[in-house]
Amino acid sequence: MSHDKGFLQVKSAVYYILGVLEVLLAFRFMFKLLAANPQNGFVSLIYAVTNAFLDPFLGIFRTATVRMDSIKGILEPALIVGMVVYAVIAWGIVELIEVFRRKK
Q1: How far apart are CA 68 and CA 82, in angstroms?
Q2: Looking at the DSSP assignment, which residues form a beta bridge with residue 74?
């Protein structure tokens, strides 16, 4: 029974980490699309933290400039790809945990 609790805690931790990462990436998506001021401390922090997570996906698609009235936003398809890939990886880790849990 204690093994099940341990597996549940690991699964919860994986989904928690995924949730934090997805929220950070969603903020970046919104900030880029709405042309947030990169000199703002919070915006700069989000960009700095998420840069490393986007590196593997940069160059898959071109970034696009989106014009909305006087706003010139940036659409980063790499960001969307990254969000999907990280969600699939987290799901795969949780499924692998389930495989090991069932063996016990």
Answers
A1: 25
A2: 65
pLDDT band at 14 (very low <50, low <70, confident <90, very high): very high
DSSP secondary structure of 55-98: GGGTTSS--EEEEETTEEEEE-HHHHHHHHHHHHHHHHHHHHHH
Give the Cα separation of 96 and 70 in Å (integer). Answer: 48
What's the whole-model pTM score? 0.87
Largest CA distance in the chain: 60
* Amino acid in position 96: L
Nearest to 94 by CA among 6, 2, 7: 7
Whole-angstrom distance, CA of residue 70 vs CA of residue 74: 13
- List pLDDT tens digits, range 75-95: 999 999 999 999 999 999 999
- Beta-carbon neighbour count of residue 87 at 10 Å? 15
